[in-house]
Amino acid sequence: MTTMPRFQSLVALEGGHVESAAQFSRKQIDELLELADLLMTRDRQGQDTDVLARRVMVPLFFESSTRTFSSFCAAMAKLGGHVVYLPLESSSMTKGETLEDTARAVDSYADVVVMRHPDAQAFKRVTSVTRHPVVNAGNGIGEHPTQSLLDVFTMVAELGTVDGLTIALVGDLKHGRTVHSLAKLLTNFAVKHLYFVAPPQLAMPDDVIEFVRSRNLSVSSSSSLTDEILSSVDVLYVTRVQKERFQSSADYESVKGHYVVTKALMDKAKARMVVMHPLPRVDEISTEVDDDPRAAYFRQMRYGLFLRMALLVAVLGKTASVC
């Protein structure tokens, strides 16, 4: 009797770009999570997984980053690969080199490029001239697909499943590329209900809402994090108001601190649920919540390491070597 190869659906990711959460099938998501869990287990047991030896990753970050940058670099190192960092402030872009020419140069040396850029169209400009996989680590207010994958991994690790959950996305949904990707990725699951909670001026973009509804996911919007919503959710996903995306400080100040998760607020939530945040936080989650066992946002960072390890293994075609 012939058995099907493990992680078979991930073969389709080999050599391809990771641009949007919408590109993943449910089977691919499940297998990425399974691979991430396997890599996490092996790491806990002290086992090395050097399947990316001699492979090179170049992080090309035009915006600041702590977790995404460091986790991708750590992921590559844990897999036995190498990271060649291009300091943009001393690159030829300071001499007027175009983004496309910089991408061509990096592509000549890298096996995979991980890119973040403030321009939502920059990713397509780069992938139009590169031969190796490029991973979208945030394209302006567009998407952040690897964050959504690690978010789902966190939900499964903490709650056992995503199917049947009630989830609220709260905060700056207009500028939040993390929630744009997460909303799209969640359409692969039998989510019970998805709430979009934001001030009217920071509401989820219409195209994301239309995408979610086209996949028959039950969704509703609210300008308030009501007691009814709070008491029903299994996942409270909080985002910061993104000051850097506003045209004026006055506009930012008018919505800053609109929602703040406090200990008193958490007293109204379920005993078994999780609070998540893509980080960094500003003032939207009080530090008094950090010791609450339902606060999963710091554990979320650790899950992200192994999910990104799994994704690098997949796009570089080494899933069979892990088994």
Tell me about this structure.
By secondary structure, this protein is an alpha/beta fold. The protein has 2 domains: 8-144 and 304-317, Aspartate/ornithine carbamoyltransferase (Rossmann fold, 3-Layer(aba) Sandwich), CATH 3.40.50; 145-301, Rossmann fold. The protein has 12 helices and 9 strands. The protein has helices spanning 26-44, 67-78, 99-109, 122-127, 145-159, 177-186, 206-214, 227-232, 249-255, 263-266, 297-315, 319-322; strands at 56-61, 82-83, 112-117, 134-139, 166-170, 193-197, 219-222, 235-238, 274-276. The strands form 2 sheets. It has a 5-stranded parallel β-sheet. The chain has a 4-stranded parallel β-sheet with strand order 2-1-3-4, with helices on both faces. Helix 1 (26-44) packs across helix 5 (145-159), helix 2 packs across helix 11 (297-315) and helix 5 packs across helix 6 (177-186). The longest helix has 19 residues, at 26-44. It starts with 25 loop residues before the first helix and ends with a helix. The model has no long low-confidence stretch (mean pLDDT 93).
Which CATH-level-2 architecture of the largest domain? Answer: 3-Layer(aba) Sandwich
Strand order of the largest sheet: 7-6-5-8-9
Total helical segments: 12
Shape: globular
Structural class: alpha/beta
Q: CATH superfamily name of the largest domain? A: Aspartate/ornithine carbamoyltransferase
Give the N-to-C terminal Cα separation: 19 Å
The total beta strand count reads: 9
Radius of gyration: 20 Å
* Helix proportion: 25-40%
User: Into which percentage range does the β-strand content fall?
Assistant: 5-15%
CATH topology of the largest domain: Rossmann fold
CATH class of the largest domain: Alpha Beta
Low-confidence stretches: none
Order of secondary-structure elements? HEHEHEHEHEHEHEHEHHEHH
Average predicted confidence as pLDDT: 93
Number of domains: 2
